[in-house]
Specification:
Blueprint: H1 4-34, H2 43-81
Helix pairs in contact: 1-2
């Protein structure tokens, strides 16, 4: 059975790992769009891409951590009922 402190540590580790992956991917996408393809997007799309980029960097790590938090909680409930 996973204790509460272990659940918190795993969730925090998942958050930072997801943040690292999303940040690296976002960095390379920005470098691609800002480098040789700088004039590729129309001005209106630049704003949309910027907003979506920031939302992905802010939301995806929380979403991944939330999924892990809930899954570990389900495991605790099943273990408490003796179903594991």
């Amino acid at each position: 059975m996973i204790t509460q402190p272990v659940r918190v540590i795993i969730t925090i580790a998942t958050y930072f790992l997801t943040l690292l992956v999303v940040t690296v991917i976002a960095f390379f996408v920005v470098i691609l769009l800002a480098g040789p393809h700088a004039g590729l997007l129309p001005h209106a799309m630049e704003v949309v891409v910027l907003v979506l980029g920031w939302l992905s960097v802010l939301i995806l790590p929380f979403w991944g951590a939330w999924i892990i938090w809930r899954r570990l909680g389900q495991r605790e409930r099943y273990a408490a009922r003796g179903e594991v």
